[in-house]
Amino acid sequence: MQKIIETNRLFLRDLTQNDVDCLIELFGDPEAMRYLPGTKSRNEIEEWLSLVFQSYQNMHFGPWAVILKGSDEFLGYCGLYLQKNVDGKDEVEILYGLIRRYWGVGYATEAATGVYEYGKTELKLRRFISLVAPGNLRSSNVVKKVGMKLEKETGMGGRQYHKYSID
Questions:
Q1: Domain locations in the chain as residue ranges
Q2: Of 132, 125, 162, 166, nearest in space to 149 by CA
Q3: Which CATH architecture describes the domain 3-166?
């Protein structure tokens, strides 16, 4: 599997159908999904993956698998996604989700920083956002460490978010 992004401890590669069982651990965990619309079943994960595969094909980016170097452990996902109609315009979001046992050791920040650098240098993108649910202090800290600043509060999909951005 081709490495798209490599950091000190991680590499990111395309997600595949073979990752469904690993994604079940992430998307099936109510605590990991606490600030997202909710847990996902196997079928919902497979539907999400089909959207990811479409993003790879149409945009040449999407959420990628986060893999720990040396052990090849699947930690979660991190990548870029084109969010439609955020405050009236399309925005490229840096998004991520890690299996809970990998929280608290800087993997999300390392992956998100790698994604930001890749988007800026390889894809020549100039603006990135992250939508963070109010109260999600872990994610707020990650996006701040990437260099994002709180831009505004916004609504999307019937939910409220803090919109962080970096240009």
A1: 3-166
A2: 166
A3: 3-Layer(aba) Sandwich (3.40)
**pTM for the model:** 0.95
Contact 22, 74 (CB under 8 A): yes
How many residues are present in the chain? 167
Residue 41 has pLDDT above 70, yes or no: yes
Residue 48 has pLDDT above 90, yes or no: yes
d(CA 139, CA 141): 5
CB contact at 8 A, 87 and 131: no
The pLDDT of residue 1: 65
Instruction: Provide the mean pLDDT of the chain.
Output: 96
Cross-strand bridge partners of residue 141 = none
